[in-house]
Amino acid sequence: MTLQEVQRWTASRPTLVDALGIEITEVTADYLEGRMPVDGRTHQPAGLLHGGASVALAETLGSLAAALRVDRTKQACVGLEINANHLKGVREGWVRGRATPVHVGRSTQVWEIRISHEETGALVCISRITMAVIDLPAAERTT
């Protein structure tokens, strides 16, 4: 899938991606990248980037990247586990995340997502998501 196709796919209906202002910025054979604003939508009460928003960005990037590795007419990828270590606080600007594969198997995938402050490059959060690859029921399959 091209970057433009992924962007159309994620914009096809209102989701958390829209609510948080997440943008997919790059799709390659080796990684998927996106960014998210650090503003009122993604702040916690003390004015810092909310850890849950970082996890939402990580899960978005990891899930999309995993889905691009399967035949989406026959299979889907669903999250089994995600973890995150929050390393640095951010008050404003943008954070950028990059999902890279650790393991892409027949029934599971593991992705590492590194989130950095877009301006300074400082590592803000490192996350790992494990995805299950499931077969779609025959009624949901497309050709």
From TrEMBL:
<dbReference type="GO" id="GO:0061522">
    <property type="term" value="F:1,4-dihydroxy-2-naphthoyl-CoA thioesterase activity"/>
</dbReference>
<dbReference type="InterPro" id="IPR006683">
    <property type="entry name" value="Thioestr_dom"/>
</dbReference>
<dbReference type="InterPro" id="IPR003736">
    <property type="entry name" value="PAAI_dom"/>
</dbReference>
<comment type="similarity">
    <text>Belongs to the thioesterase PaaI family.</text>
</comment>
<dbReference type="GO" id="GO:0005829">
    <property type="term" value="C:cytosol"/>
</dbReference>
<protein>
    <submittedName>
        <fullName>Hotdog fold thioesterase</fullName>
    </submittedName>
</protein>
<dbReference type="InterPro" id="IPR029069">
    <property type="entry name" value="HotDog_dom_sf"/>
</dbReference>
<dbReference type="Pfam" id="PF03061">
    <property type="entry name" value="4HBT"/>
</dbReference>
<keyword id="KW-0378">Hydrolase</keyword>
<feature type="domain" description="Thioesterase">
    <location>
        <begin position="47"/>
        <end position="121"/>
    </location>
</feature>
